[in-house]
Design brief:
Layout: E1 7-8, H1 19-31, H2 41-61, E2 68-71, H3 74-87, E3 93-96, H4 102-115, E4 118-121, H5 132-139, E5 145-148, H6 162-171, E6 175-179, E7 198-202, E8 213-217, H7 243-258, H8 260-281, E9 286-287, E10 301-305, H9 310-313, H10 316-322, E11 325-326, H11 342-347, H12 350-353, E12 357-361, H13 368-383
Parallel strand pairs: 1-11, 3-4, 3-5, 5-6, 6-7
Antiparallel strand pairs: 2-8, 7-8, 9-10, 10-12
Helix pairs in contact: 1-7, 2-7, 3-4, 8-13
Length: 385
């Protein structure tokens, strides 16, 4: 019996862990089991590893080690920043967009309900990019304001001009937070060149382990902890550090940035090949937002709208899964939901929303042969009565 072909094109949801990273994680679990807060030699050796990882990760972002706070992932980092900004920094106005990750949107909604803060949503153009003039208008206020905008959109790949946004925030004395979960490990980030106050990242988006990430918190920000307990993480995140995961994240980030240019070229070529093949074999397909534009979107993903009637579209992901193909309707956090993508709902017209849209996201472990297979399966499904 032929083994079913399996293709994983959902790297924006999570990436496979590199073999070197998995080995490093296992080795630490075997040999460095001491609590980093303990004063004996077992604890001290673990503490050395934690602080080494903090220093290395800080170096990649060109920030001091003390500005890196380890968390359980991007969602916790977003929550830490947003909730503390309101609670500890007296922020009364949050400016964001309606196509942010739910880790931001739902947190902002909760803060509005619990603290009666003002929330302003920036206008978007037809491709889902923010209206920079509207942002500037929203910043012209006496209220203490935090701007929260993601660097790379997790569904369509749109890239935010964070340098321009950071300069505006500085001009109007607003704080700037960015969810960089889809960009850390894929783009160089120099925090000395960009006036970002807070940033969220997650290891499993760049071939590291799940359950670990970090927040960059600019020195002397005044932020307080979200999780209360011990004094771990400079008092900003109580709880024993997940040592093996932290070391795994450090190694994954090292490997990502050491091979960044080579990997970017490879994945970009793969994305371009996917776009070309879709355009050739399914000419009525359309690419959503800026996802087919390499200047405006991430090289790691593409969001395509397929010419399939609604009555047939509901079975599309199921049929692809039967063929061994993994992709997504939107973010992994809502892919099991029957709700429409909140991102595409803000960008597309009603008629366009009636057609199914899929996000395909790529990594160094994908091949052109896999692209050919996926396109052939899509073409067959579309042509079948």
């Amino acid at each position: 019996m032929n083994k079913m072909k399996r293709v994983y094109f959902d790297n924006a949801a999570t990436t496979p862990v590199r073999e070197e990273v998995a080995e490093a994680v296992f080795e630490v679990m075997k040999t460095n089991f001491g609590n980093p807060s303990s004063s004996h030699s077992y604890g001290r050796s673990s503490k050395v590893l934690v602080e080494h990882s903090r220093k290395v990760i800080g170096k990649h972002l060109n920030v001091s080690a003390g500005e890196i706070i380890f968390t359980s992932g991007g969602t916790e980092a977003d929550n830490l920043v947003l909730k503390s900004a309101v609670k500890d920094l007296s922020v009364t106005h949050i400016v964001t967009s309606k196509i942010e990750h739910h880790a931001v949107l739902h947190t902002v909604e909760a803060l509005k309900k619990d603290y009666n803060i003002k929330v302003s949503y920036i206008n978007l153009d037809n491709s889902g990019f923010i209206d920079i003039n509207h942002l500037e208008a929203l910043l012209q206020t006496e209220e203490k304001t935090l701007v929260s905008l993601m660097h790379v959109n997790n569904e369509v790949g749109n890239i935010l001009d964070i340098k321009k946004v950071s300069e505006l925030c500085k001009t109007y004395k607003a704080l700037f937070h960015t969810d960089a979960v889809q960009s850390i490990g894929h783009y160089n980030m120099n925090m000395q060149d960009i006036n970002i106050d807070f940033l969220a990242a997650s290891a499993h988006k760049f071939h590291g382990p799940k359950g670990v990430g970090f927040a960059f918190i600019r020195k002397n920000s005044g932020l307080g902890p979200l999780i209360i307990g011990g004094e771990q993480e400079r008092g900003l995140r109580a709880g024993t550090e997940s040592l093996h995961n932290i070391v795994g994240m450090e190694m994954a980030l090292n490997l990502a940035y050491n091979d960044l240019d080579k990997d970017k070229d490879y994945i970009s070529a793969l994305k371009q090949y996917f776009i070309d093949q879709i355009s050739k074999e399914i000419p009525n397909a359309r690419f959503n937002a800026g996802s087919a534009d390499f200047e405006k979107s991430s090289y790691t993903m593409v969001n395509v709208r397929l010419p399939i009637p609604p009555e047939k579209a509901s079975m599309l992901l199921f049929q692809l899964d039967l063929k061994g193909i993994a992709c997504s309707k939107g973010s992994a956090c809502q892919s099991g939901s029957i709700q429409k993508s909140h991102v595409l709902t803000e960008i597309l017209k009603e008629e366009e929303l009636s057609k199914p849209s899929l996000r395909f996201s790529f990594s160094i472990y994908n091949t052109k042969e896999e692209v050919d297979y996926v396109v052939s399966v899509l073409k067959t499904f579309i042509s079948e009565p």
